Amino acid sequence: MRLTSLLSILARRGRVVLALGGLALLTGCNFNFWRMDGHQSTIDVNGPVAKSQLEVFYATCWVTFVIFVLVASVLAYATLKFRARSEADEHAEPPEQGHGNPLIELSLIGASILALVIIAVPTLKSIGYTYDVPAEEKANAYEVNATGYQWWFKFEYPNEQIKDTGPLVTANELVIPAGRPVRINLRGMDVIHSFWVPKLAGKVDMIPNRGNFLWLKADAPGYFWGQCAEYCGDSHAVMRFRVIALGPKEFNDWLNQQTAPAREVAKVAATDQPKAQFAAYRTDWKTNEKGWTKEFDLNPLDGWRAQQFPDTKHEDAALIAKGRGLFQSKTCFSCHVVRGHMVGGSGAYPDLTHIGTRTTIAAGVLENSSEQLARWISHPDRVKPGNKMYVTGYIPNNIKLTPDDVSALVAYLHSLK
Ligand code: CUA
Questions:
Q1: Residue 69 confidence (pLDDT)
Q2: Residue 232: CB within 6 Å of ligand 1?
Q3: CA 229 to ligand 1: nearest atom
Q4: The pLDDT of residue 2 is above 70
Q5: pLDDT of residue 1
Q6: Whose alpha carbon is nearest atom 1 of ligand 1?
Q7: How far is CA 60 from CA 42, 118, 357, in A?
Q8: What is the pLDDT of residue 284?
Q9: What pTM, to 2 d.p., does this model score?
Q10: Residue 350 CA, ligand 1 centroid: distance in Å
Protein backbone atom coordinates (compact mmCIF):
# COMPACT_ATOMS: atom_id res chain seq x y z
CA MET A 1 0.00 0.00 0.00
CA ARG A 2 1.28 3.45 -0.87
CA LEU A 3 2.14 5.72 2.06
CA THR A 4 -0.15 8.46 0.70
CA SER A 5 -3.17 6.16 0.54
CA LEU A 6 -2.42 4.95 4.09
CA LEU A 7 -2.36 8.55 5.29
CA SER A 8 -5.63 9.41 3.53
CA ILE A 9 -7.36 6.42 5.18
CA LEU A 10 -6.07 7.60 8.57
CA ALA A 11 -7.33 11.12 7.86
CA ARG A 12 -10.81 9.81 6.97
CA ARG A 13 -10.94 7.62 10.09
CA GLY A 14 -9.75 10.58 12.17
CA ARG A 15 -12.74 12.62 11.00
CA VAL A 16 -15.08 9.78 11.99
CA VAL A 17 -13.52 9.62 15.48
CA LEU A 18 -13.84 13.40 15.83
CA ALA A 19 -17.45 13.35 14.66
CA LEU A 20 -18.35 10.56 17.12
CA GLY A 21 -16.61 12.43 19.92
CA GLY A 22 -18.50 15.64 19.10
CA LEU A 23 -21.78 13.74 18.98
CA ALA A 24 -21.08 12.18 22.37
CA LEU A 25 -20.39 15.64 23.82
CA LEU A 26 -23.56 17.07 22.30
CA THR A 27 -25.68 14.21 23.65
CA GLY A 28 -24.32 14.83 27.13
CA CYS A 29 -22.35 11.58 27.22
CA ASN A 30 -20.63 11.34 30.57
CA PHE A 31 -16.87 11.55 30.18
CA ASN A 32 -16.07 10.45 33.75
CA PHE A 33 -13.37 8.25 32.32
CA TRP A 34 -11.26 11.32 31.71
CA ARG A 35 -11.91 12.93 35.07
CA MET A 36 -9.05 12.60 37.46
CA ASP A 37 -10.73 14.06 40.57
CA GLY A 38 -13.11 11.24 41.52
CA HIS A 39 -13.73 10.31 45.17
CA GLN A 40 -10.89 7.83 45.32
CA SER A 41 -8.47 9.47 42.91
CA THR A 42 -4.77 9.07 43.63
CA ILE A 43 -4.04 11.79 41.06
CA ASP A 44 -6.02 14.57 42.78
CA VAL A 45 -3.89 14.66 45.94
CA ASN A 46 -4.68 16.76 49.02
CA GLY A 47 -1.72 16.15 51.29
CA PRO A 48 2.07 15.80 51.28
CA VAL A 49 2.16 12.00 51.73
CA ALA A 50 -0.13 11.31 48.75
CA LYS A 51 1.79 13.95 46.78
CA SER A 52 5.11 12.24 47.42
CA GLN A 53 3.62 8.91 46.29
CA LEU A 54 2.17 10.56 43.17
CA GLU A 55 5.61 11.91 42.27
CA VAL A 56 6.98 8.35 42.24
CA PHE A 57 4.13 7.34 39.95
CA TYR A 58 4.90 10.20 37.56
CA ALA A 59 8.65 9.46 37.55
CA THR A 60 7.86 5.86 36.57
CA CYS A 61 5.39 7.03 33.93
CA TRP A 62 7.91 9.40 32.34
CA VAL A 63 10.67 6.80 32.21
CA THR A 64 8.38 4.20 30.65
CA PHE A 65 6.96 6.83 28.28
CA VAL A 66 10.45 7.65 26.96
CA ILE A 67 11.17 3.91 26.51
CA PHE A 68 7.84 3.52 24.69
CA VAL A 69 8.58 6.42 22.31
CA LEU A 70 12.09 5.13 21.53
CA VAL A 71 11.01 1.53 20.93
CA ALA A 72 7.91 2.55 18.95
CA SER A 73 9.96 4.91 16.74
CA VAL A 74 12.55 2.25 15.92
CA LEU A 75 9.74 -0.22 15.21
CA ALA A 76 7.89 2.25 12.97
CA TYR A 77 11.08 3.19 11.13
CA ALA A 78 12.00 -0.47 10.49
CA THR A 79 8.44 -1.36 9.45
CA LEU A 80 8.24 1.43 6.87
CA LYS A 81 11.82 1.40 5.64
CA PHE A 82 12.17 -2.37 5.18
CA ARG A 83 8.61 -3.19 4.08
CA ALA A 84 8.12 -5.40 1.01
CA ARG A 85 7.75 -3.16 -2.03
CA SER A 86 6.98 -5.81 -4.63
CA GLU A 87 5.77 -9.38 -5.13
CA ALA A 88 9.40 -10.50 -5.41
CA ASP A 89 10.30 -8.78 -2.08
CA GLU A 90 7.57 -10.68 -0.33
CA HIS A 91 8.93 -14.06 -1.37
CA ALA A 92 12.63 -13.21 -1.06
CA GLU A 93 14.91 -15.10 1.35
CA PRO A 94 15.60 -13.12 4.56
CA PRO A 95 18.96 -11.29 4.47
CA GLU A 96 21.96 -12.69 6.33
CA GLN A 97 21.29 -12.57 10.11
CA GLY A 98 23.90 -10.99 12.38
CA HIS A 99 24.30 -11.44 16.12
CA GLY A 100 26.57 -10.25 18.85
CA ASN A 101 27.11 -6.48 18.79
CA PRO A 102 28.93 -5.57 22.04
CA LEU A 103 28.32 -1.83 21.62
CA ILE A 104 24.53 -2.23 21.30
CA GLU A 105 24.31 -4.84 24.06
CA LEU A 106 26.37 -2.82 26.55
CA SER A 107 24.48 0.40 25.79
CA LEU A 108 21.14 -1.35 26.30
CA ILE A 109 22.30 -2.76 29.66
CA GLY A 110 23.57 0.70 30.59
CA ALA A 111 20.32 2.37 29.55
CA SER A 112 18.26 -0.15 31.59
CA ILE A 113 20.37 0.52 34.69
CA LEU A 114 20.03 4.26 34.17
CA ALA A 115 16.22 3.95 33.84
CA LEU A 116 16.06 1.96 37.09
CA VAL A 117 18.24 4.49 38.90
CA ILE A 118 16.01 7.35 37.71
CA ILE A 119 13.02 5.51 39.22
CA ALA A 120 14.90 4.43 42.37
CA VAL A 121 15.92 7.94 43.51
CA PRO A 122 12.39 9.38 44.05
CA THR A 123 11.19 5.95 45.28
CA LEU A 124 13.75 5.76 48.08
CA LYS A 125 13.18 9.41 48.94
CA SER A 126 9.43 8.84 49.16
CA ILE A 127 9.80 5.65 51.23
CA GLY A 128 11.86 7.62 53.74
CA TYR A 129 9.47 10.58 53.81
CA THR A 130 6.18 8.68 53.99
CA TYR A 131 7.35 6.14 56.61
CA ASP A 132 6.81 8.33 59.67
CA VAL A 133 6.03 11.93 60.64
CA PRO A 134 9.13 14.04 59.82
CA ALA A 135 11.21 14.89 62.93
CA GLU A 136 10.56 18.65 62.65
CA GLU A 137 6.78 18.06 62.66
CA LYS A 138 6.67 15.42 65.42
CA ALA A 139 5.79 17.92 68.14
CA ASN A 140 2.73 19.06 66.17
CA ALA A 141 1.50 15.53 65.30
CA TYR A 142 -1.91 14.23 66.40
CA GLU A 143 -2.38 10.54 67.24
CA VAL A 144 -5.30 8.25 66.42
CA ASN A 145 -5.79 4.46 66.63
CA ALA A 146 -7.65 2.78 63.78
CA THR A 147 -8.84 -0.83 64.04
CA GLY A 148 -10.29 -2.89 61.20
CA TYR A 149 -13.17 -5.25 61.94
CA GLN A 150 -15.27 -7.32 59.53
CA TRP A 151 -16.57 -4.93 58.01
CA TRP A 152 -16.12 -1.53 59.63
CA PHE A 153 -13.47 0.75 61.10
CA LYS A 154 -13.13 1.79 64.73
CA PHE A 155 -11.32 5.06 65.52
CA GLU A 156 -9.94 5.84 68.97
CA TYR A 157 -8.54 9.15 70.21
CA PRO A 158 -5.98 8.30 72.91
CA ASN A 159 -5.47 12.01 73.72
CA GLU A 160 -9.14 12.53 74.50
CA GLN A 161 -9.75 10.54 77.67
CA ILE A 162 -13.32 10.52 78.94
CA LYS A 163 -13.71 10.22 82.72
CA ASP A 164 -14.44 6.63 83.88
CA THR A 165 -14.73 5.45 80.27
CA GLY A 166 -11.46 5.59 78.37
CA PRO A 167 -10.54 7.23 75.10
CA LEU A 168 -13.10 8.79 72.76
CA VAL A 169 -14.29 6.15 70.28
CA THR A 170 -16.08 6.66 66.96
CA ALA A 171 -16.80 4.51 63.94
CA ASN A 172 -16.30 4.81 60.19
CA GLU A 173 -15.78 8.57 60.10
CA LEU A 174 -12.34 9.72 61.15
CA VAL A 175 -12.29 13.41 62.02
CA ILE A 176 -8.80 14.93 62.00
CA PRO A 177 -7.24 18.38 62.35
CA ALA A 178 -6.35 19.86 58.93
CA GLY A 179 -2.81 21.14 58.40
CA ARG A 180 -1.37 18.92 61.13
CA PRO A 181 0.36 15.57 60.65
CA VAL A 182 -1.79 12.71 61.95
CA ARG A 183 -0.12 9.47 63.00
CA ILE A 184 -2.51 6.56 62.77
CA ASN A 185 -1.79 3.31 64.60
CA LEU A 186 -3.29 0.46 62.60
CA ARG A 187 -4.61 -2.83 63.99
CA GLY A 188 -6.77 -5.62 62.66
CA MET A 189 -9.09 -7.44 65.04
CA ASP A 190 -10.11 -10.51 63.03
CA VAL A 191 -8.46 -10.77 59.61
CA ILE A 192 -6.11 -8.54 57.63
CA HIS A 193 -7.68 -5.27 56.46
CA SER A 194 -5.99 -2.29 54.84
CA PHE A 195 -6.36 1.42 55.52
CA TRP A 196 -6.47 3.58 52.42
CA VAL A 197 -7.49 7.22 51.85
CA PRO A 198 -6.38 7.71 48.23
CA LYS A 199 -6.30 11.51 48.29
CA LEU A 200 -4.28 11.63 51.51
CA ALA A 201 -2.05 8.54 51.71
CA GLY A 202 -1.38 5.14 50.22
CA LYS A 203 -2.55 1.95 51.86
CA VAL A 204 -1.05 0.15 54.86
CA ASP A 205 -2.29 -3.21 56.14
CA MET A 206 -4.14 -3.57 59.46
CA ILE A 207 -2.88 -6.89 60.79
CA PRO A 208 -4.02 -8.80 63.91
CA ASN A 209 -1.25 -9.00 66.53
CA ARG A 210 1.11 -6.76 64.63
CA GLY A 211 1.39 -3.03 65.12
CA ASN A 212 1.48 -1.04 61.88
CA PHE A 213 1.14 2.68 61.41
CA LEU A 214 1.06 5.40 58.80
CA TRP A 215 0.91 9.15 58.81
CA LEU A 216 -0.94 11.62 56.67
CA LYS A 217 -1.80 15.27 56.54
CA ALA A 218 -4.70 17.09 54.90
CA ASP A 219 -3.54 20.43 53.47
CA ALA A 220 -6.93 22.05 54.09
CA PRO A 221 -10.35 21.20 55.56
CA GLY A 222 -12.07 18.59 53.40
CA TYR A 223 -14.09 15.41 53.13
CA PHE A 224 -12.22 12.37 51.88
CA TRP A 225 -13.26 8.88 50.86
CA GLY A 226 -11.50 5.82 52.33
CA GLN A 227 -11.68 2.13 51.55
CA CYS A 228 -10.45 -1.17 52.94
CA ALA A 229 -7.89 -2.27 50.38
CA GLU A 230 -7.22 -5.87 51.40
CA TYR A 231 -9.67 -8.66 50.64
CA CYS A 232 -11.23 -9.52 54.00
CA GLY A 233 -14.33 -11.61 53.31
CA ASP A 234 -17.89 -11.32 51.95
CA SER A 235 -18.32 -7.58 52.38
CA HIS A 236 -14.77 -6.36 51.73
CA ALA A 237 -15.89 -4.18 48.82
CA VAL A 238 -18.40 -2.35 51.03
CA MET A 239 -15.98 -1.75 53.91
CA ARG A 240 -15.49 1.96 53.51
CA PHE A 241 -14.91 4.99 55.68
CA ARG A 242 -14.48 8.76 55.52
CA VAL A 243 -11.88 11.20 56.73
CA ILE A 244 -13.12 14.67 57.62
CA ALA A 245 -10.40 17.28 58.09
CA LEU A 246 -11.34 20.42 60.07
CA GLY A 247 -9.67 23.71 60.98
CA PRO A 248 -8.42 24.10 64.61
CA LYS A 249 -11.54 25.69 66.10
CA GLU A 250 -14.00 23.42 64.35
CA PHE A 251 -11.95 20.35 65.30
CA ASN A 252 -11.94 21.45 68.93
CA ASP A 253 -15.71 22.01 68.89
CA TRP A 254 -16.15 18.56 67.42
CA LEU A 255 -14.01 16.97 70.17
CA ASN A 256 -16.05 18.75 72.86
CA GLN A 257 -19.29 17.55 71.36
CA GLN A 258 -18.10 13.98 70.87
CA THR A 259 -16.62 13.53 74.34
CA ALA A 260 -19.94 14.55 75.89
CA PRO A 261 -22.46 11.76 76.61
CA ALA A 262 -25.28 11.06 74.14
CA ARG A 263 -27.86 13.82 73.82
CA GLU A 264 -30.97 13.45 76.00
CA VAL A 265 -34.26 14.09 74.26
CA ALA A 266 -36.57 11.74 76.06
CA LYS A 267 -36.44 9.00 78.65
CA VAL A 268 -37.88 5.55 78.03
CA ALA A 269 -40.66 6.19 80.53
CA ALA A 270 -42.45 8.76 78.34
CA THR A 271 -46.07 7.72 78.02
CA ASP A 272 -47.14 10.18 75.33
CA GLN A 273 -48.20 8.76 72.02
CA PRO A 274 -45.91 9.65 69.11
CA LYS A 275 -47.27 12.68 67.25
CA ALA A 276 -45.47 12.19 63.96
CA GLN A 277 -47.15 9.83 61.55
CA PHE A 278 -44.39 8.53 59.36
CA ALA A 279 -45.09 7.27 55.90
CA ALA A 280 -43.78 3.71 55.90
CA TYR A 281 -40.22 3.40 54.68
CA ARG A 282 -39.47 1.38 51.60
CA THR A 283 -38.89 -2.29 52.33
CA ASP A 284 -38.18 -3.66 48.84
CA TRP A 285 -34.45 -2.82 48.85
CA LYS A 286 -32.32 -5.10 46.74
CA THR A 287 -28.77 -6.22 47.45
CA ASN A 288 -26.21 -3.73 46.13
CA GLU A 289 -28.79 -1.02 45.53
CA LYS A 290 -27.25 2.44 45.74
CA GLY A 291 -27.54 4.18 49.12
CA TRP A 292 -26.59 7.60 47.95
CA THR A 293 -27.92 10.90 46.63
CA LYS A 294 -26.13 13.12 44.13
CA GLU A 295 -26.98 16.22 46.18
CA PHE A 296 -24.87 14.98 49.06
CA ASP A 297 -21.92 14.19 46.79
CA LEU A 298 -21.86 17.75 45.48
CA ASN A 299 -20.82 19.27 48.78
CA PRO A 300 -20.13 16.56 51.34
CA LEU A 301 -18.22 18.77 53.80
CA ASP A 302 -21.14 21.18 54.14
CA GLY A 303 -23.43 18.15 54.37
CA TRP A 304 -21.29 16.92 57.25
CA ARG A 305 -21.42 20.32 58.95
CA ALA A 306 -25.21 20.46 58.71
CA GLN A 307 -25.41 16.98 60.22
CA GLN A 308 -23.79 18.15 63.47
CA PHE A 309 -26.88 19.99 64.69
CA PRO A 310 -30.08 18.40 65.99
CA ASP A 311 -33.25 18.89 63.97
CA THR A 312 -35.18 20.17 66.99
CA LYS A 313 -38.10 21.43 64.87
CA HIS A 314 -39.08 18.00 63.58
CA GLU A 315 -38.14 15.88 66.56
CA ASP A 316 -40.88 13.89 68.26
CA ALA A 317 -39.90 13.21 71.88
CA ALA A 318 -42.41 10.39 72.30
CA LEU A 319 -41.26 8.60 69.15
CA ILE A 320 -37.64 8.97 70.26
CA ALA A 321 -38.54 7.57 73.68
CA LYS A 322 -40.20 4.60 72.00
CA GLY A 323 -37.07 4.06 69.92
CA ARG A 324 -34.91 4.25 73.00
CA GLY A 325 -37.08 1.60 74.65
CA LEU A 326 -36.80 -0.64 71.58
CA PHE A 327 -33.03 -0.16 71.50
CA GLN A 328 -33.08 -1.80 74.94
CA SER A 329 -35.81 -4.40 74.50
CA LYS A 330 -34.53 -5.61 71.12
CA THR A 331 -31.07 -6.01 72.74
CA CYS A 332 -29.29 -3.53 70.41
CA PHE A 333 -27.59 -2.10 73.53
CA SER A 334 -25.86 -5.38 74.31
CA CYS A 335 -23.48 -4.78 71.35
CA HIS A 336 -23.63 -1.02 70.71
CA VAL A 337 -22.49 1.61 73.20
CA VAL A 338 -24.67 4.72 73.64
CA ARG A 339 -22.62 6.46 76.30
CA GLY A 340 -24.80 8.04 78.99
CA HIS A 341 -28.05 6.36 77.94
CA MET A 342 -27.72 2.73 78.94
CA VAL A 343 -25.11 0.40 80.30
CA GLY A 344 -24.03 -2.18 77.81
CA GLY A 345 -22.20 -2.56 74.56
CA SER A 346 -18.72 -3.68 73.79
CA GLY A 347 -15.77 -2.20 71.96
CA ALA A 348 -16.13 -4.87 69.29
CA TYR A 349 -19.10 -3.12 67.62
CA PRO A 350 -19.62 0.43 66.38
CA ASP A 351 -20.10 3.02 69.15
CA LEU A 352 -23.38 4.84 68.46
CA THR A 353 -23.13 7.61 71.09
CA HIS A 354 -23.17 10.29 68.39
CA ILE A 355 -24.33 8.34 65.33
CA GLY A 356 -26.66 11.22 64.39
CA THR A 357 -23.67 13.42 63.58
CA ARG A 358 -22.21 11.04 61.00
CA THR A 359 -22.88 11.45 57.31
CA THR A 360 -22.67 7.74 56.60
CA ILE A 361 -23.75 4.46 58.16
CA ALA A 362 -22.89 0.81 57.56
CA ALA A 363 -19.16 1.59 57.11
CA GLY A 364 -19.56 4.42 54.63
CA VAL A 365 -21.90 2.52 52.30
CA LEU A 366 -25.16 4.35 52.97
CA GLU A 367 -25.91 8.00 53.45
CA ASN A 368 -27.13 8.62 57.01
CA SER A 369 -30.66 9.64 55.96
CA SER A 370 -33.84 8.36 57.64
CA GLU A 371 -34.64 6.25 54.61
CA GLN A 372 -31.20 4.61 54.43
CA LEU A 373 -31.00 4.07 58.18
CA ALA A 374 -34.40 2.36 58.04
CA ARG A 375 -33.11 0.23 55.16
CA TRP A 376 -30.01 -0.75 57.10
CA ILE A 377 -31.94 -1.65 60.26
CA SER A 378 -34.56 -3.66 58.39
CA HIS A 379 -32.28 -5.49 55.93
CA PRO A 380 -28.65 -5.34 57.04
CA ASP A 381 -27.88 -8.54 55.13
CA ARG A 382 -28.89 -6.93 51.84
CA VAL A 383 -26.48 -4.04 52.38
CA LYS A 384 -23.55 -6.00 53.77
CA PRO A 385 -23.80 -9.75 53.19
CA GLY A 386 -22.43 -11.75 56.12
CA ASN A 387 -22.36 -8.84 58.58
CA LYS A 388 -22.37 -9.66 62.30
CA MET A 389 -25.39 -7.51 63.19
CA TYR A 390 -27.46 -9.88 61.09
CA VAL A 391 -25.62 -13.17 61.42
CA THR A 392 -24.82 -13.14 65.14
CA GLY A 393 -27.39 -10.54 66.26
CA TYR A 394 -30.68 -10.79 64.40
CA ILE A 395 -30.78 -14.49 63.50
CA PRO A 396 -29.90 -16.21 66.84
CA ASN A 397 -31.91 -13.67 68.86
CA ASN A 398 -34.85 -13.86 66.47
CA ILE A 399 -35.04 -10.07 66.25
CA LYS A 400 -38.08 -8.93 64.26
CA LEU A 401 -38.94 -5.28 63.69
CA THR A 402 -42.29 -3.91 62.51
CA PRO A 403 -42.27 -0.80 60.25
CA ASP A 404 -43.33 1.25 63.32
CA ASP A 405 -40.43 -0.14 65.33
CA VAL A 406 -38.06 0.85 62.54
CA SER A 407 -39.45 4.43 62.46
CA ALA A 408 -38.99 4.77 66.21
CA LEU A 409 -35.43 3.38 66.12
CA VAL A 410 -34.53 5.75 63.28
CA ALA A 411 -35.90 8.71 65.27
CA TYR A 412 -33.95 7.66 68.35
CA LEU A 413 -30.64 7.08 66.53
CA HIS A 414 -30.91 10.35 64.65
CA SER A 415 -31.47 12.22 67.92
CA LEU A 416 -28.01 11.06 69.08
CA LYS A 417 -26.01 14.13 68.14
CU1 CUA B 1 -11.53 -5.08 55.32
CU2 CUA B 1 -11.25 -5.58 53.06
A1: 97
A2: yes
A3: 2
A4: no
A5: 47
A6: 193
A7: 15, 8, 42
A8: 87
A9: 0.85
A10: 16
- What does the alpha-carbon distance between residue 103 and residue 392 come to, in Å, rounded to a whole number? 70
Element (H, E) at 130: helix 102-131
Q: What is the pLDDT of residue 16?
A: 60
Q: What b/e readout covers 271-308, taking b as 16+ CB neighbours within 10 angstroms?
A: eeebeeebeebeeebeeeeebeeeebeeebeebbbebb
Q: Taking a C-beta distance cutoff of 8 angstroms, is the pair 365, 238 a contact?
A: yes
For position 314, what pLDDT does the model report?
A: 85
Over range 271-288, report the average pLDDT. Answer: 75
Q: Once rounded to an integer, what is the mean pLDDT over residues 298-325?
A: 91
Residue 154 pairs in a beta bridge with: 147, 171
Residue 3 has a pLDDT of 55
Residue 363 Cβ inside 6 Å of ligand 1? The answer reads: no
- Atom number, ligand 1, closest to the C-alpha of residue 191: 1
| Atom in ligand 1 nearest the alpha carbon of residue 192 | 1
* d(CA 102, ligand 1 centre) in Å: 52
**Nearest to 245, CA basis, from 305, 193, 293, 194:** 305
Query: 236 CB less than 6 Å from ligand 1?
Result: yes
| Ligand 1 neighbour 193 (Cβ under 6 A) | yes
